[in-house]
């Protein structure tokens, strides 16, 4: 499997997009995650930090390079690290529309902010 996993959310953090790569990499079927909070893939011990950062990014979006090896809670209950990039999606006026996460199926960014 070499397709990247792509997840999109709205400004509240509800999953609005889940591609075939996300199904294959993380094990959750698209029909099971659409409309649910994105923390379905955030390890429990990181959820508070995730939501604090998410809400900050939605309130004051800024373009940053947020590429790192990120832990993902997979459907089988295992936490696995994948090289990923997090992006805030904005309209032409800079208003947040949601977020996107793109994960590669293998490799490393060399950055592991969570150990």
From TrEMBL:
Domain PAS stretches: 1-61
Question: Which InterPro entries does UniProt cross-reference here?
Answer: PAS, PAS-like_dom_sf, PAS_fold
Instruction: List the SUPFAM superfamilies hit by this protein, alphabetically.
Output: PYP-like sensor domain (PAS domain)
- Which superkingdom, per the lineage? Bacteria
* CDD domains, per database record: PAS
Q: What is this protein called?
A: PAS domain S-box protein
Query: To which species is this protein native?
Result: Actinomycetospora atypica
